[in-house]
Amino acid sequence: MSARRPLQTGFTLVEVLVALAIVAIALMAGSQATSALVTNATRQSDVMLGHICAQNELVKARLMRELPSYGDQQSQCEQAGRSYQVVTTVSPLPNPQFRRIDAQVFDARYPVIRVSTIVGRY
């Protein structure tokens, strides 16, 4: 009679650990990609809302029908439930009939967008 060994089926501990490591690396990469997408979507939303705030300030300056005075002016802008600070800077140009207006929008954490225009006498 010959002694037969039963066939062993299954995975070794090393194989299971290698498979778990591969799955963990794939999940970490997916998590980082998802985080980057969420950050980008938030930034894009901030830029769009900040652009609306900046354009509002520039249109306000154009509708005054007179040249704005030089200097900085700060205001708050509320868009979609978020609060932004808008700093409007009026600076001279070589032609005294025109002024440059820069509207820079800030979130609580960082600058969002800067929009510029030139206004003249009407």
Write up what this structure looks like:
One of its GO terms (cellular component) is type II protein secretion system complex. It is found in: Cell inner membrane. It comes from Diaphorobacter aerolatus. Its main location: membrane. It is a single-pass membrane protein. Strands 1-2-3-4 form a 4-stranded antiparallel sheet, with helices on one face. The chain has one helix at about 15-65; strands at about 70-80, 80-90, 100-105, 110-120. The protein has 1 helix and 4 strands; from the N terminus they run αββββ. About 10% of the residues are buried. A hairpin with a 4-residue loop joins β3 and β4 (about 110-120). The protein has a single domain (about 15-120), classed as Pantoate--beta-alanine Ligase, Chain: A,domain 2 (2-Layer Sandwich). The chain is rod-shaped. The protein is an alpha+beta fold and about 120 residues long.
